[in-house]
Write a structure and sequence with these properties.
zinc; zinc ion binding; 138 residues; 32% helix; Arc Repressor Mutant, subunit A; three-stranded antiparallel β-sheet; 5 helices; FUR; alpha+beta
Length: 138
């Protein structure tokens, strides 16, 4: 059994061939990817299969969805041990306005924010926009 298969099974996801391929694809990326990026990488796969795989991965805490302000949802693998809980697993995201990449800055955690009484947080997303380290060197 491969590491990917173990990871999927540990999250109660059956490791089908397509799920393994999508996980591997995401693991090889250094930035978050859109559904269209995945569709282009797997041209022969059904769009609904790809979408359902991403949704399953998101529900099981394998990937997280990033809203970087471009109106295109992007997906990135969660770091080991992440369970995407608002109080402990949230990190910054950086969107480069030059190359259009969005990256997870997992080492920079979002601190817990105490909301006023009666407010209930359902999602937190902090995106910093600017020029990434690669683009700033050019």
């Amino acid at each position: 059994m491969t590491d990917i298969e173990k990871t999927l099974e540990n999250k109660s996801v059956r490791p089908t061939a397509m799920r393994i391929l999508i996980y591997k694809y995401l693991a090889e990326k250094d930035s978050a990817v859109a559904l269209t990026d995945i569709e282009n990488a797997f041209e022969k796969a059904e769009r609904t299969t790809l979408y359902r795989t991403l949704k399953t991965f998101e529900e099981k805490g394998i990937v997280h969805q990033i809203d970087d302000g471009t109106n295109i949802s992007k997906f990135a693998l969660c770091e080991p041990g992440c369970n995407c809980e608002i109080d402990q697993d949230l990190h910054l995201h950086f969107h480069c306005t030059h190359c259009d990449k969005t990256v997870c800055l997992t080492e920079h955690k979002i601190p817990h924010i105490n909301l006023p009484s009666g407010y209930i947080a359902e999602d937190v997303n902090l995106v910093i926009k600017g020029i990434c380290d690669t683009c700033s060197k050019h």
